[in-house]
Amino acid sequence: MTMTEQPAEPREKESACCARHDDRAGRPGAEPPEPARERVNRRWNEVLQETRVTQTGVQILFGFLLSVAFTPLFRELETPDKVIYVMTVVFGASATGSLIAPVSIHRFLSGQRMKDEVVKTAGRLMVCGMVLLALTIGCTLLLILRFVVPGVLAEVLVGGVMLWFGLCWYVLPLRLRRKAARRAEREQA
Fold first, then answer.
1. Looking at residue 43, what is its pLDDT?
2. SS3 for 146?
3. Nearest-CA neighbor of 3 among 114, 120, 123, 124?
4. CA pair distance 2, 94, nearest whole angstrom
5. Alpha-carbon torsion, ordered 130, 135, 137, 142, to 10 deg
6. CA atoms within 13 A on the CB side of 99
7. How far apart are CA 2 and CA 113, in angstroms?
8. Closest CA to 28 of 188, 176, 182, 180
9. What's the pLDDT tens digit per position in 8-51?
10. Is the pLDDT of residue 97 over 90?
């Protein structure tokens, strides 16, 4: 049996938390609440899909970054640009590690009846990996734009892109989560 086939142990606190974030919970005439085992299996499958998407992007970007050091123009980089490059490679390697870690965790813990913990840990690693991926993209963009755009415009453009990432990847989801929590509270009252 694989980990995704193991039964999840229901916990009241987690069930209430997850039910709060479930669009179907608490509405009149809505589908019945999702059983704990089905929920953890669904959440694990969602983590796998998200991991597949992000892993591909970070691995392509990281491979590109590694090849840059072997180009003739790399030797001509000034010290600040080499520092940005090193930071970019470190962020890329760290993002790769965070985004691949759920696979390793699953492999080592498969069959141990720890799916709830694995899903939570994988989710945290995904968030960490996304932060590192955003930093990798930002540093890559900064490195490229410093060659293309004159003056401080490169830093301003990168700051704008990073702000956009922050809004799209973090602020918007957290805002939607709070909105759903408030709606659930109103429906329960």
1. 87
2. helix
3. 114
4. 28
5. 170
6. 24
7. 9
8. 188
9. 444 444 444 444 445 544 555 566 788 888 888 888 888 888 88
10. yes
Question: What's the one-letter identity of residue 13?
Answer: K
Helix (H, G, I), strand (E, B) or coil at 2: coil
The C-alpha atoms of residue 69 and residue 86 are separated, in whole angstroms, by 10
Q: What is the pLDDT of residues 45-86, one digit of tens each?
A: 888 888 888 888 888 888 889 898 899 988 888 999 999 999
| Phi/psi at 143 (5° precision) | -60, -45
Single pTM value for the model? 0.74
Buried b (16+ CB within 10 A) or exposed e, 19-33: bbebeebbeeeeeee
What residue type is assigned to position 111 of the chain? G
| Cα→Cα distances 33→18, 25, 26, 38, Å | 10, 6, 8, 10
d(Cα 143, Cα 154) in Å, to the nearest integer?
9
The closest of 36, 48, 44 to 11, measured between CA atoms, is 36
User: What are the pLDDT digits (tens) for 98-114?
Assistant: 999 988 888 888 788 88
